[in-house]
Inverse folding.
């Protein structure tokens, strides 16, 4: 018979088994995975990925996302430019989808991650009734949807590949894909145990 | 909280949305248990999980193959015709020099979805035959590592967005693969939402634990 404090129980992020928190080197009793390897630098890894993502997000917005070549003359548009163009053409739903996927979701994710990373270190908003676990779950759920824009560009570039009209992906596509990739990594690297201030 | 040994922790579950601790209770066939705090689904009970899973994952694989060999959409602009398939979309990124984006896309829309459904088929086949305790464990670990990286549903929405963008300029014909992809995405969503790794770990325990008890008798 052993006695455990309920607060000492953690969930294995891989197989979801309930485990007893053994601090620095907890390994899951069911799947054997080490539960969070980066114990000694608690938030640094997540910060590093997040900053990389934010840096990659800047060229993603400045460089052209796609270039339309029509009868020899080229025309490039950035993410924002593309959204404005779609809005002016009257395709409001598509403009909204692209706006949400490539502007709202990434920025929201950056802000939530920054808030989470700061709030676990400093007593910021600790007494508020925000469920940080739910916030974290939300970022993980909506995060991948910002890939929409990259996929759309890939599809258009593959589809419109004729002699007279061509659509070519731009530098921003690479930057944007990298940015999304690193935000996903940042979210995965975040140690959920920090939310309760256990570490 | 008192426990007999560490394995007794298997009777508990922590909600994956809000991290509330719950005790697992037996529920009726085909029903699900929800979190009392946030309403998120904790687990389901299905006595024929292996059979259902095997059927779903094999149909998923068939639809995935169909979706990848037939043309996705065909367009007509100024008398020119052009069609794409899913592998061709990724390859065209490589051809135009976008190796990094091409690689990321190849993994997200082709390699990971294929791997997930292959792993599911092997897993459920092994669970059905009640063999390979060690392999099942390794496969389950691998599965939960690559699960968040499969984006076929997002890719499908992107196809719709791209097509709506083209409506004014070109004539669009949907290919066989478009319909196969719809089927695949629906199956993918159903499988990843309803057949959770948690239930598969429990099934594995039920099967091999029972066997060990029988051996002892």
């Amino acid at each position: 018979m052993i006695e455990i404090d309920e607060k000492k129980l953690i969930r294995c992020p891989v197989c979801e088994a309930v485990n007893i928190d053994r601090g620095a080197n907890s390994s899951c009793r069911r799947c054997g995975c080490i539960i969070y390897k980066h114990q000694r630098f608690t938030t640094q890894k997540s910060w590093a990925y997040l900053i990389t993502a934010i840096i990659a997000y800047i060229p993603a917005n400045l460089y052209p996302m796609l270039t339309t070549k029509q009868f020899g003359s080229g025309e490039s548009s950035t993410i924002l430019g593309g959204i404005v163009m779609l809005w002016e053409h009257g395709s409001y739903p598509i403009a909204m989808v692209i706006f949400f996927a490539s502007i709202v979701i990434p920025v929201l994710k950056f802000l939530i991650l920054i808030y989470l990373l700061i709030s676990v270190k400093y007593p910021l908003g600790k007494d508020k009734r925000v469920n940080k676990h739910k916030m974290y779950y939300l970022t993980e759920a909506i995060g991948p949807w910002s890939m929409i824009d990259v996929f759309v560009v890939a599809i258009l570039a593959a589809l419109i590949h004729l002699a007279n009209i061509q659509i070519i992906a731009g530098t921003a596509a690479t930057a944007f894909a990298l940015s999304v990739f690193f935000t996903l990594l940042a979210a995965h690297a975040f140690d959920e145990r920090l939310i309760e201030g256990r570490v | 909280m008192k426990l007999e040994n560490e394995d007794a922790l298997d009777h508990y579950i922590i909600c994956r949305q809000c991290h509330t601790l719950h005790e697992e209770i037996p529920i009726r066939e085909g029903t699900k248990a929800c979190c009392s705090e946030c309403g998120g689904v904790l687990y389901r009970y299905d006595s024929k999980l292996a059979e259902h899973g095997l059927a779903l994952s094999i149909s998923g694989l068939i639809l995935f193959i169909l979706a990848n060999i037939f043309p996705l959409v065909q367009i007509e602009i100024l008398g020119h015709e052009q069609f794409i398939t899913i592998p061709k979309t990724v390859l065209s990124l490589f051809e135009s020099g976008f190796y990094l984006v091409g690689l990321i896309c190849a993994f997200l829309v082709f390699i990971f979805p294929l791997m997930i459904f292959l792993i599911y088929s092997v897993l459920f086949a092994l669970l059905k035959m009640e063999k390979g305790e060690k392999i099942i464990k390794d496969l389950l670990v691998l599965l939960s590592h690559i699960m968040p990286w499969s984006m076929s549903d997002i890719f499908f929405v992107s196809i719709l967005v791209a097509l709506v963008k083209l409506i004014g300029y070109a004539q669009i014909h949907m290919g066989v693969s478009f319909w196969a992809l719809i089927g695949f995405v629906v199956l993918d969503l159903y499988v990843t939402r309803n057949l959770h790794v948690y239930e598969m770990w429990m099934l594995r325990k039920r099967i091999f634990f029972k066997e060990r008890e029988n051996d002892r008798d």
